[in-house]
């Protein structure tokens, strides 16, 4: 038996005493297409006392069209005085953001965008490492 996505989210949120839910725009759009109705509207009905946050993140870099791949979720993990790029979330992950890989390279070179203290940051990644935040 299929259960509606908002109902499942509501059940889990109540069981785990969740007070806030964050959705990115892409996820909301995809789930709304599946549900044939606005996920946000359905969630507001299902869990009216939980804060919903909709985050919109550009998956492309402005003024860099054709130089980078579409951005993908990534993390920065501290290693000594540098940060290493990772595509897996671990307890050591310090920053979550989007990694835009340079086209034409086999190595992880590119731009990592993330929020730090509410401010949008952008750093250069060279061979998996960020030397300066």
Task: Please characterize this protein's 3D structure.
This protein is an alpha+beta fold and 133 residues long. It is 23% helix and 36% strand. It has 2 domains: 5-55, no CATH class; 72-130, no CATH class. A 6-stranded antiparallel beta sheet has the order 7-6-5-3-4-8, with no helix packed on it. It has a two-stranded parallel ribbon with strand order 1-2. α1 crosses α3 (39-46). The longest helix has 11 residues, at 5-15. The radius of gyration is 18 Å and the shape is elongated.
CA-based shape: elongated
Query: What share of the residues does DSSP label as strand, in percent?
Result: 35-45%
Number of helices: 3
Specify the biggest β-sheet: 6 strands, antiparallel
Low-confidence stretches: none
- Helix % is 10-25%
Q: What's the helix-strand series?
A: HEHHEEEEEEE
- What's the total number of strands? 8
Q: What structural category characterises the helix and strand content?
A: alpha+beta
Strand order of the largest sheet: 7-6-5-3-4-8
On the 0 to 100 scale, the average pLDDT is 83
**How many discrete domains?**
2
Radius of gyration: 18 Å
Alpha-carbon distance between the two ends: 48 Å
């Amino acid at each position: 038996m299929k259960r509606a996505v908002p109902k499942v989210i509501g059940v889990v949120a109540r069981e785990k005493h969740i007070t806030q839910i964050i959705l990115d725009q892409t996820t909301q759009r995809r789930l709304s297409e599946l549900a044939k109705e606005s996920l946000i509207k359905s969630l507001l009905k299902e869990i009216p006392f939980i804060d919903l946050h909709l985050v919109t993140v550009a998956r492309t870099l402005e003024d860099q069209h054709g130089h980078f791949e579409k951005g993908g979720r990534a993390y920065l993990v501290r290693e000594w005085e540098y940060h290493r790029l990772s595509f897996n979330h671990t307890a050591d992950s310090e920053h979550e953001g989007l990694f835009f890989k340079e086209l034409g390279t086999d190595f992880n070179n590119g731009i990592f965008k993330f929020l730090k203290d509410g401010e949008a940051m952008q750093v250069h990644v060279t061979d998996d490492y960020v030397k300066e935040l």
